[in-house]
Design goal:
Layout: H1 3-22, H2 25-41, H3 50-68, H4 74-98
Helix pairs in contact: 2-3, 3-4
Length: 99
C-alpha cells in the first residue's frame, strides 16, 4: 500500500467517525451558513471585535453539530462554553485594566 493510499484511508476513516458525532457535512454546512447569515444581519455584528465574531461563528458550528449530529457528544457543549469564555475572560481582563 502506498503512503498516499494509506493517508487517504485514514482520512476516510476519520470522516466516517466524524459523521457520526458531527452529522452530515453538507446538511451541517447549510445550517451553519444560514445561522451566520442571520447573525450578520442583526445587532452590533459589524462593531463587534474579531474575537467576538469568531467565537459566535464557532458557536454556530457547534450548535449545528449538536442539531445535525450526536446531541449527546459532550465535546460540542464544552466547546460552546469555551468559546464564550474566551471572550468573557478577555472582557473581564479589559475591565480590570481600565479600573
Amino acid at each position: 500500500m502506498t503512503k498516499s493510499h494509506k493517508n487517504s484511508d485514514q482520512i476516510n476513516q476519520l470522516l466516517s467517525e466524524r459523521q457520526i458525532t458531527h452529522g452530515n457535512f453538507l446538511d451541517k454546512a447549510h445550517l451553519i451558513q444560514a445561522q451566520k447569515d442571520v447573525m450578520r444581519e442583526y445587532g452590533s455584528w459589524k462593531s463587534m471585535d474579531p474575537d467576538m465574531q469568531e467565537s459566535l461563528d464557532m458557536i454556530a458550528t457547534k450548535i449545528a453539530r449538536i442539531l445535525i449530529g450526536d446531541s449527546y457528544h459532550h465535546d460540542n457543549w464544552i466547546d460552546i462554553a469555551g468559546y464564550a469564555m474566551l471572550v468573557a475572560n478577555r472582557l473581564q481582563q479589559q475591565e480590570k485594566n481600565n479600573e
